[in-house]
Amino acid sequence: MINRKFKLIVITLLFICQIVKGQSNTDVLKKYVVFTFEVSHKDAKLKEYYYWITPQDSVTKKNAFEVFPLYTEEYSKDILDRCKSGGMIDIFSASNATNFDFDDNYKSQVTNLLSIISVNKIEVQIFKKKWDKNGDEMVIRVYATPINGTFCNCLQNHGKVTYGFKGIVYLPVMSFSYDMNFSNSKNEKTVKYVDYSYVEYSSHYPINIHGNSNIRVKGSIELY
User: Fold this and answer.
1) Is residue 145 over pLDDT 90?
2) Which residues of 15-36 are buried (b: 16+ CB within 10 A; e: fewer)?
3) Interatomic CA distance for residues 179 and 113, integer angstroms
4) Residue 204 predicted with pLDDT over 90
5) How far is CA 17 from CA 4, 92, 153, in A?
6) Could you tell me the end-to-end alpha-carbon distance of the chain, in angstroms, rounded to an integer?
7) 25-83 pLDDT, tens per residue?
8) What pairing do the DSSP bridges indicate for beta strands 166-178 and 194-195?
9) In whole numbers, what is the pLDDT of the chain averaged over residues?
10) Domain residue spans in the chain?
């Protein structure tokens, strides 16, 4: 009888922990910085956009912090639900559970996020890449946008395919707004003096072969 009660208590506690884990991964409104990598090719009219993100409280660590891939449209609803519960995901794989039945409210939330990013972005760096063999040249502009909002983060693993992506990624959830308090703050100064040129900005997409996605960017000066 005692063993049965003990097992029931353990199962209940595990169930509660799982609920708390899922809620803590999504239900907290936090401050972030979203980085936009705008890529212009020499002979191309269209530009490419890649988004990365970091919590603002990680920026306070002087002049070094990690940035993580942010997806805004490539994932399915079941992938989002799995990420919100803290599970591992593979955005570019499909299964019988795959569906894109997002409700209109969620679609509106993501559209609003992209609008906030675009309207309020500030340029923090420009750099170029050139290939002598084919004559291609790219100009990469990096922008930063401070965001209030709820995002989920989880491990993305493409271990079964050739490009071997593995790392923490973020997906948007809800309640996005521009963080007006970021302007002229210590964190903004840190963000402006960081070198983003070695970030593999498109590495979380299948066309690239790379290693771990969690990239630490470092500033050229010490900020205290």
Assistant:
1) yes
2) eeeeeeebeebbeeeebbbbbb
3) 12
4) no
5) 20, 29, 18
6) 61
7) 555 789 999 999 999 887 777 888 999 999 999 887 666 789 999 999 889 999 999 99
8) unpaired
9) 80
10) 29-219
Interatomic CA distance for residues 72 and 98, integer angstroms: 17
The letter for the amino acid at 62 is K
Contact 45, 66 (CB under 8 A): no
Q: Give dist(CA 52, CA 34) in Å, integer.
A: 6
Give mean pLDDT, residues 120-145. Answer: 87
* DSSP letter assigned to residue 182: G
In angstroms, the CA 61 to CA 7 distance is: 44
CA pair distance 40, 50, nearest whole angstrom: 12
Question: Would the pTM of this model clear 0.90, i.e. be above it?
Answer: no
Burial code (b: 16+ CB inside 10 Å, e: under 16) for 124-143 equals bbeeeeeeeeeeeeeebbbb
Closest by alpha carbon to 114, among 73, 85, 142?
73
